[in-house]
């Protein structure tokens, strides 16, 4: 009896372990078959660029320029932003390829479920939820002090929006942050196209402010002789190690582009538009960061930068006090765009987890009118608003970086797994699998016949191979990234010449 009990316990442990490493298909086909409403495919490349730039360029750049220049990089801050941008681009390439191969909502959670297993996907999903919730609440809390500058200080804010301290608990509540979160939540419930339009407007204002900083600061620099670069300590006052340490810190400024992949089911042509949207958005952010850091560290010595308001203080030191209001406008729009990007991605991760049975089906419902997950959006919006109202989440901001690091690492591992799995196990969308199956049924019986004919007539092999490759190319014309894998899957049993031709065709 004891031995049978041990066997039964061992079997339960074995099946429990198998459930943690089980993987799923690319598409949530069962959702479609059950007649659920689908997300609206309305996003274009321009919309993706606006979402990516808006979610990436937060107010961090308005603060990090002073802190990193003073403590780590000095005038070499521009190179630090470049190195961090290259590192972020490597992660962006992973996300772009995974989004093309696995075009379903869920971002890194979805990719890890397909490539690694359910256990890791569950951890990644909750890490992303934690990241977007805490990040959104922290961003909302940061808008209030910047907004107060237009009223002449926090004390001049309307009583209904001004922060208050609860004497009994010693908690500082922020009604303005909670109201902003609720406004963004209502906006996201109206539809993805409306949300992307607002994101595009806010992001355009933010980018315009950064261009103003570059142009006006460049004019002052050429007029005064770039005093920040005429230092006896040189361009690398903290050495090469300081430059790399600065790049590690400013990498935080590039977090946010991954929210673009959460909208993959709402993109008109994800295989083409997602890589372009992610790549162009990240390139724009890197260029703006480098130019702003170059101008600011050149206008004043790096050790004279204000660690809290470096850009505003630089322009104020040159007598341009009116520019402080423009820069503050850029910081507010950057924070608002970052808040919109955080609250946009989180409901779609909840929706993806609910589709897979890891959360109640309540979160997977899609409104038939707006074609967005309204229930998930409202739930996450209310939770983020409560968090922004009651808690000072600045101490929890480090958890945002932990969640992002975990998601980026999982995405990179998922790409490596895709590189080494057999061609017939490469995850493909259901629509492409049907195309492959139809071509396989059409040409499958002719492969062996073609082999025997080619042995008798080697000169005709090239013509036959070209014909087969042409047919397969037509079946997968919308999926260029995986055309090579399809060709290998079909011709794995052919001779070396077939494989070479398939590689060339890919």
UniProtKB/TrEMBL annotation:
<comment type="similarity">
    <text>Belongs to the amino acid-polyamine-organocation (APC) superfamily. Cationic amino acid transporter (CAT) (TC 2.A.3.3) family.</text>
</comment>
<feature type="transmembrane region" description="Helical">
    <location>
        <begin position="234"/>
        <end position="255"/>
    </location>
</feature>
<feature type="transmembrane region" description="Helical">
    <location>
        <begin position="201"/>
        <end position="222"/>
    </location>
</feature>
<feature type="transmembrane region" description="Helical">
    <location>
        <begin position="320"/>
        <end position="345"/>
    </location>
</feature>
<keyword id="KW-0472">Membrane</keyword>
<protein>
    <recommendedName>
        <fullName>Cationic amino acid transporter C-terminal domain-containing protein</fullName>
    </recommendedName>
</protein>
<feature type="transmembrane region" description="Helical">
    <location>
        <begin position="396"/>
        <end position="421"/>
    </location>
</feature>
<feature type="transmembrane region" description="Helical">
    <location>
        <begin position="372"/>
        <end position="390"/>
    </location>
</feature>
<feature type="transmembrane region" description="Helical">
    <location>
        <begin position="108"/>
        <end position="129"/>
    </location>
</feature>
<feature type="transmembrane region" description="Helical">
    <location>
        <begin position="166"/>
        <end position="189"/>
    </location>
</feature>
<dbReference type="GO" id="GO:0016020">
    <property type="term" value="C:membrane"/>
</dbReference>
<feature type="transmembrane region" description="Helical">
    <location>
        <begin position="48"/>
        <end position="69"/>
    </location>
</feature>
<keyword id="KW-0812">Transmembrane</keyword>
<feature type="transmembrane region" description="Helical">
    <location>
        <begin position="75"/>
        <end position="96"/>
    </location>
</feature>
<dbReference type="InterPro" id="IPR002293">
    <property type="entry name" value="AA/rel_permease1"/>
</dbReference>
<keyword id="KW-1133">Transmembrane helix</keyword>
<dbReference type="GO" id="GO:0022857">
    <property type="term" value="F:transmembrane transporter activity"/>
</dbReference>
<dbReference type="Pfam" id="PF13520">
    <property type="entry name" value="AA_permease_2"/>
</dbReference>
<feature type="transmembrane region" description="Helical">
    <location>
        <begin position="276"/>
        <end position="300"/>
    </location>
</feature>
């Amino acid at each position: 009896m004891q031995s049978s009990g041990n066997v039964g316990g061992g079997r339960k442990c074995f099946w429990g372990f198998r459930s943690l490493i089980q993987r799923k298909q690319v598409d949530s086909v069962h959702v479609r078959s059950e007649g659920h409403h689908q997300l609206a495919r309305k996003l274009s490349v321009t919309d993706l660029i606006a979402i990516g730039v808006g979610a990436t360029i937060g107010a961090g750049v308005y603060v990090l320029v002073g802190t990193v220049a003073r403590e780590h990089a000095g005038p070499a801050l521009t190179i630090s932003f470049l190195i961090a941008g290259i590192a972020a681009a490597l992660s962006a390439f992973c996300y772009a390829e995974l989004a093309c191969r696995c075009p379903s909502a869920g971002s890194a959670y979805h990719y890890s479920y397909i490539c690694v297993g359910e256990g890791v996907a569950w951890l990644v999903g909750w890490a992303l939820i934690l990241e977007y919730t805490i990040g959104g609440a922290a961003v909302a809390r940061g808008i209030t002090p910047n907004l107060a500058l237009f009223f002449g200080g926090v004390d001049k804010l309307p009583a209904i929006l001004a922060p208050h301290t609860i004497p009994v608990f010693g908690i500082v509540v922020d009604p303005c942050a909670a109201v902003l979160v609720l406004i963004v939540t209502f906006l996201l419930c109206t539809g993805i196209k409306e949300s992307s339009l607002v994101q595009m407007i806010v992001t355009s204002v933010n980018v315009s402010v950064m261009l103003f900083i570059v142009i006006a600061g460049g004019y002052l620099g050429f007029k005064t002789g770039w005093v920040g670069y005429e230092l006896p300590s040189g361009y690398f006052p903290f050495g090469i190690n300081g430059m790399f340490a600065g790049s590690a810190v400013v990498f935080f400024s590039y977090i946010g582009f991954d929210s673009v992949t959460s909208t993959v089911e709402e993109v008109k042509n994800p295989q083409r538009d997602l890589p372009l949207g992610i790549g162009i958005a990240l390139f724009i952010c890197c260029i703006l960061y480098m130019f702003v850091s170059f101008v600011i560290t050149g206008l004043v010595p790096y050790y004279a930068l204000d660690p809290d308001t470096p850009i505003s203080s630089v322009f104020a030191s040159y007598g341009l006090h009116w520019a402080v209001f423009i820069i503050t406008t850029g910081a507010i729009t950057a924070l608002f765009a970052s808040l919109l990007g955080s609250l946009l991605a989180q409901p779609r991760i909840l929706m993806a987890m609910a589709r897979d049975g890891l959360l109640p089906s309540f979160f997977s419902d899609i409104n038939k009118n707006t074609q967005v997950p309204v229930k998930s959006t409202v739930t996450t919006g209310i939770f983020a608003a409560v968090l922004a109202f009651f808690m000072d989440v600045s101490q929890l901001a480090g958890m945002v970086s932990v969640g992002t690091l975990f998601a980026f690492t999982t995405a990179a591992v998922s790409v490596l797994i895709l590189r080494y799995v057999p061609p017939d196990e490469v995850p493909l969308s259901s629509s492409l699998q049907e195309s492959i199956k139809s071509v396989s049924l059409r040409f499958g019986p002719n492969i062996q016949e073609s082999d025997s004919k080619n042995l008798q007539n080697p000169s005709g092999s090239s013509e036959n191979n070209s014909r087969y490759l042409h047919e397969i190319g037509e079946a997968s014309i919308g999926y260029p990234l995986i055309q090579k894998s399809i060709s290998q899957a079909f011709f794995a049993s052919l001779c070396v010449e077939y494989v070479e031709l398939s590689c060339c065709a890919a």
